[in-house]
Every structure is written in structure tokens, then in C-alpha cells.
From TrEMBL:
Name this polypeptide is given: Xaa-Pro peptidase family protein
Pfam annotation, one family: Peptidase_M24
Domain Creatinase N-terminal residues, every copy: 18-136
Domain of life: Bacteria
InterPro entries: Creatin/AminoP/Spt16_N, Creatinase/aminopeptidase-like, Creatinase_N, Pept_M24, Peptidase_M24B
Species the sequence originates in: Candidatus Parabacteroides intestinigallinarum
Location of the Peptidase M24 domain: 144-377
Amino acid sequence: MTAFIAEELKDDLRIKWNRIKDELVKKGMDACLLTVDVNLYYTTGRVFSGYLYLPADGEPWFFVKRPNGLEGDRVVYIRKPEDMPDIFAEQGIPMPQSLLLEADELTYNEYIRLQKVFQPRETDNATALMRMLRRIKTPWEIERFRLSAQRHEATYREIPACFRPGMTDLEFQFEIEKQMRVHGSIGLFRAFGANMDIFMGSILAGENAETPSPFDFALGGGGMDSSCPLGANGTPLKAGTAIMVDMAGNYTAYITDMTRVFSVGKLPDKAYRAHQVALTIQQEVTNVARPGAACADLYRIAADIAKREGLEANFMGTRQQAKFVGHGIGLQINELPVLTPRSKEELLPNMVFALEPKFVIPGVGAVGVENSFLVTETGVEKLTRFEESIIPLDE
């Protein structure tokens, strides 16, 4: 048998449970029921088939369908959600009159089914609550980010050795993916929302960097197949090509985000200038990023610099331009907050976000930088550390 809650996670999970319970009290809700993988991991330290039931007043209950062999306080095996009311009655657990369900992520059938199981007078959206709470990282989560960042850097140091003349972008990516796995990449790359499929990250080279994608990432790319139109597409890595490597930092459950640019031969002067502007944007944004800084203002700083430098038409794409320059990261690559001109959010201590000022140079490729930052009490700390200039691959 395996302990349901790992001993080293008990303090961290208690912090998270208490945060959720505080919000339930503020909302006047009796309980929440979670079943989506990322929320189960966040609140239990494991992914399982089943449900976490957390009342505003009382201890959590863990209803498990699979896998077998887990044990612990208030761990109960069930075959289907309809089993839960009988267990509530046996254990003296009050049935909730108001309940939060993961409305943005459950299927319609599952949502209706759970409403019938509990028959609350009121239901509300647990997805919005969990995304809001997951913005602020616990000390344990921050240490997981640091570990991911170290392994992420170790992989990026080996990228030049993955290159061989005559490669395509796909062949280059295959070699990088191997090194990612060697350094402990989980492989699975989680993102929130529909139409957000991605496999271990993205590489954009040459003209492919201009190709629009239906996915809401910073840049697109045609991809290997129309079923997943994103990233590398078989572009030859020839002289004068910029190669943007944005491969996932999923070396723990907490994902770091880091982009670096490599070149085959010398690039046009405009590419190097645009890259330097991206570094200037990073510096200017992080100079003012601290608790209380408005995310919309951080975006405007970036956009204003791009416009001032005459690169507005290249900023965050050409044929399709992303309307953000950064985003929260965590168990998913696209968490809150988002650095966009319409954002109403401000930075808060212990948020972790990625800042990614990028430019696309037609016929050359994408340039720019992306790093992960921890919001401290007085500013930000860069978590991902690796050479930020354009790195030549054929020297």
C-alpha cells in the first residue's frame, strides 16, 4: 500500500487547503469538488481518478476510483460518483447546499451528473477559483521551479552539440528532445484551454516563424501536420537562418519557460538589432516589475519600446501578432497573470511569470528572449539563466 499524502507535502498541502477554505468562506460556499488532474495534483500531490471534496469547515475527503493501493486518512474507494452521498451519510458529512465545480473544464455530462449527485441549491465555478489561487506559489512550489530551471539550463547548454550541418528544424528538435529526457523532462506539457495542444515545446526557423497558428501561443509555425499546426515543419537550417528554441522546462510538475535564439552563419543586421531591443525590453520591464505593478503597464512598456525602435510591425509576430508579452506559469504553461494591454491584474509576491519579448524578421526567423521570473517583495528574480545573445551553431 502507498500513503496517499507524501510526508514531505503535508505542510504545503495544508497551506493550499486553507487558502481554498478561506475563499469558500468569503464566497459563502459550503464546499468545492475537484477532479481535473492539475487541481488534484495541486491539492493532493498526485494525479488519480476520483475527487477531492473540501468543505469550508472540516477536513478534505479523497474519493478514489483508480489506482488501487492508496491508503490514508479520509481516503475512500468508490466505483462511481453516485456512491458519495451514501458515504457522506455513513461518515456524518453534511451534504453541501452550495458547491463549486470545475465548470470551465468538466464535460457538460459530468457537470450535470455531479449536480444530480449532490443536488446543491447553488453551484459556482471552481476553475476560476483554482486558477486565481494557483497564481501565488508556496515555498515548496518555488523550490520545484528552481529545480526545473536548473535542469532547463543544463539542457540548453547542450543544444549547440545537437546541431549538424544540413539538418532540418525537425531533426534539430528531435535531438534536443532527447537531451530533455536525459535531464529529466516529464514529457507531458500541460496547457489550459481548448485548442492548446503542444508537444514538449516549439522550434521556429526561417520563414516558418511567420506562419500563423490557431493556438494562442506567442508565435506560431506550420508544424508537422495540419492536425497540430504549431512549431517546426521541416525547414532546412541553412546559412542566414535564425532558430528560436522554446522547449519546455517540464522537469518537475512546475514548468519553467525559456527561449533562446541560435543562428546558422551570420544573420542580417536587423535581426541582431531586434534581438538587442528584446533584451532592452526585458531589462526595462523587469526594472519596474514588483508587487503592485499593473500587468497592462508592463505590456505597454514593451510595446512602446518596440514602436520607438521602428519594430512595431515585427513585434510578437508579423502576419499574426500576439497581444501579450508574458504570462503566468506553474502546473500549466499559461497560468495567470497575463501581461496584456487589457489586463486588470497586478503583480503579487510569489507569482511566477514568463516574459517573452520577441520579433519576427521575414525571411530570417524569430529573435528575442524569454525567461521565467519570481516576484519578490521588492522586485523580480530571474530563475532561468543561460546566455541571452544569439548563439552561432557553426563555430
